[in-house]
Design goal:
The protein is an alpha+beta fold. 23% of the residues lie in helices and 25% in strands. It has two helices and four strands, in the order αββαββ. It comes from Candidatus Nealsonbacteria bacterium CG_4_9_14_0_8_um_filter_36_17.
């Protein structure tokens, strides 16, 4: 199935990814307060590919109405990039 057709068949809301914490210098230059909004069918410009790879499972889970058992609120979670020395933490939410 083509991605365009998949997006029509399985629509997903806009996802907001916000940097809420940066521990050390981020190689991608991310700073607290940076925000990206995007649908599942497009990669957000300027978001580190390593960070996107780390947080993508959480994006798809909450984007398709999934629930993470450790989260109190549905449609919202926190996840971090994979850099062990200069970790960037993101808040991921579904826009309504």
């Amino acid at each position: 199935m083509k991605l365009k057709n998949m997006a029509k068949k399985y629509p997903m809301p806009i996802i907001k990814v916000k940097v809420i914490r940066v521990n050390g210098p981020c190689e991608a230059g991310h700073k607290v307060g940076d925000i990206w909004k995007f649908p599942l069918t497009k990669c957000p410009k300027g978001l580190c590919i390593w960070a996107l790879t780390a947080i993508f499972p959480y994006i798809t889970t909450i984007g398709y109405n999934g629930r993470l058992p450790w989260e109190k609120k549905k449609g919202c979670t926190v996840a971090s990039c994979s850099d062990p020395d200069n970790t960037v933490t993101f808040e991921i939410t579904v826009e309504k």
